[in-house]
Amino acid sequence: MLGIIRQKMTAGLSPAMRIRPVASALRSYSSAAKEINVREALNSALDEEMSADPKVFLMGEEVGEYQGAYKISKGLLDKYGPERVLDTPITEAGFTGIGVGAAYYGLKPVVEFMTFNFAMQAIDHIINSAAKSNYMSAGQINVPIVFRGPNGAAAGVGAQHSHCYAAWYASCPGLKVLSPYSSEDARGLLKAAIRDPDPVVFLENELLYGESFPVSAEVLDSSFCLPIGKAKVMIEREGKDVTITAFSKMVGFSLKAAEILAKEGISAEVINLRSIRPLDRATINASVRKTNRLVTVEEGFPQHGVGAEICASVIEESFGYLDAAVERIAGADVPMPYAANLERMAVPQVEDIVRAAKRACYRSVPMAAVA
Amino acid sequence: MSSTFSSSINTITPRSFTNNNPSLTPFLGSARNLRFNPLTNSTLPIPRLRQSNIFAVSDVKQKHLNSSPSVGNLLITKEEALELYEDMVLGRTFEDMCAQMYYRGKMFGFVHLYNGQEAVSTGFIKLLTKKDTVVSTYRDHVHALSKGVPAREVMSELFGRTTGCVRGQGGSMHMFSKEHNLIGGFAFIGEGIPVATGAAFTSKYKREALKQTNCDAVTVAFFGDGTCNNGQFYECLNMAALWKLPIVFVVENNLWAIGMSHLRATSDPEIWKKGPAFGMPGVHVDGMDVLKVREVAKEAIERARRGDGPTLVECETYRFRGHSLADPDELRDPSEKAHYAARDPLTALKKYMIESKLASEAELKAIEKKIDELVEDSVEFADASPHPPRSQLLENVFADPKGFGIGPDGKYRCEDPKFTEGTAHV
Fold first, then answer.
1. How far apart are CA B20 and CA A172, in angstroms?
2. CATH homologous superfamily for B61-384?
3. Cα A133 from Cα B182, distance rounded (Å)
4. Residues sharing a CB contact under 8 Å with residue A210, sequence separation 6 or more, in sequence order
5. Distance (Å) from the C-alpha of residue A162 to the closest C-alpha of chain B?
6. Model ipTM?
7. CA gap B22, B45 in Å, rounded
8. Residue A304 catalytic?
9. Can you give the pTM of this predicted structure?
């Protein structure tokens, strides 16, 4: 099973970027019935929500006849027809605005961006006409829209296709920002996002689409929903020495780092943030108060990033509990390079997380590699 | 050409905007002639100049004085004329009062006044029903008033009071009213156009995907000449024509974008021409004459309601004041201002009504007095209204009442055992 998953993952990827699937055959999940990959999870969530509510419709580039640029919307055009699965021209600003206008009138658009980099051409509508409208209209007009698409670095796609926008959208009041990691997260959070009456920015990750995760029967139920605003302490990784917070692909890396740390006697607790805005400060702070050390991990640029906000929150609320400085692991502060080895250096790797956790636990020489 | 106008307005049948006679295409490469031409049959050549085919009010009147002794109501009935006049006077008086209030310090920030452009707002919006949508820009006070938002609420909003139409949270540039289907009020030019296209899309979606066959709401989007150089405008012209959405794009071409003259900013200043490039009719109309605007608006709105798709209407109009109350308005030529001041839509309609005996001087004066009192009352109401309380600051960020995944009882929704069944209510 691991071999098959690895084959799917490595098709087209350089060996350096191969991701080992998290689902280890050695672990046992009490209710694990089957495995689905994130792509199937998203597809099934969209399918179920579209069939449950006729007001939900999908629009974006290549979502219809092409079956989705990353095949997330496969089969939906055949099932729901061209009125509900709309192939748009390459007009991000235009079609995002159309989605917002439709949401003003009670429809529930799911706007797909081929990547969130292209959403920058539509960011005026995401922020100014979606996020702020409920406030500007004093509650008269709410915007039940979902903006989704891949976010952050992929493999070898260069500077303009690799930007992580979690911090950008999370800084804006009026938006809810979600970032799933596993298939369970993807399904539950997308369903919650579509049902939510407010604008939700749903940041997926291209490299996770093919990764499979075990899911319980409860997750596969059509009314399964995860709460927006609640982080998850990864069950397989509850610890007492250091807290590692992460979202999206970095959760996988953090879990692997935690395995390595466990062999060295450091018990790390991994928190899957799931929701970047609203940030689950209660869970993070409770965890830090237990472990007294914090490492924040993210793929995006460090300055004013998600880690910075978590750090500030912990210092404001749990300063007395910290036994060491907060370690921030983020992507390198450069536009994403193309060369494979440079790209590998620009994105956090498992070793970086391990090193940071050790630093937080005073187990290693500080700052081995300082630029 | 004059024969169609000798009958009263009720018998002019809606004429399709498309003229499929290919021999009249003004340029090669276009298979269809989409120039709006309501009065001619297909044998007449299409004028290339910026000439509206709607007659000037006084021209028609003259023709009829010559042709028949009994001058019926050629263009408009008395009730309609009084309604139009009252609406325009409301717009003008309200805006003048805004200027006064601004200079007295009751209003603050950015205030953009609509003086001089009332004919466009009145001409279009008075033909809409309550369920039709209007989307505007920051110059939206008069659009709100024409659509039916009470003057008291608009004035309170401008004063920043909690009784305003959006409780003081929007201000001059962000007027919203769900009840009257006015969805903004956008500060970014061009931002309202895609949102309006979305509202039109919803109307079509409700009809086709949700099978609500009685849904024929039309959307009218107002924006200026400066916006017509913005990318979003073209994106929406494309998609509206592609999907045949029930929308009318109304360009209020007042020739100036703050201090930038339209002619200095645009490669081809004739905006109506950009409609046919996308497959929809492009119409140019004199925006200082409310009856002409109304004539064009009628056709465009009917076209959208029928399901024939969008129309681009360019209204040549003028703003008598500066871009905003903070604009010193030094760049515009006084003779240009005088030229347009002479074509003031209010005096033109007043003159027409009196000359064609639709109303007497006294009736019009009574309307003006009534509106003066209404606006005064709205100022008093706004003045007496309370400022928003502190507790209002954090409200309305999300529709989810407590936001943040927290249920009405204060606990996390996910802890509700029913949550994952999807039955927990938001």
1. 50
2. Thiamin diphosphate (ThDP)-binding fold, Pyr/PP domains (3.40.50.970)
3. 13
4. A8, A9, A37, A38, A39
5. 25
6. 0.77
7. 12
8. no
9. 0.79
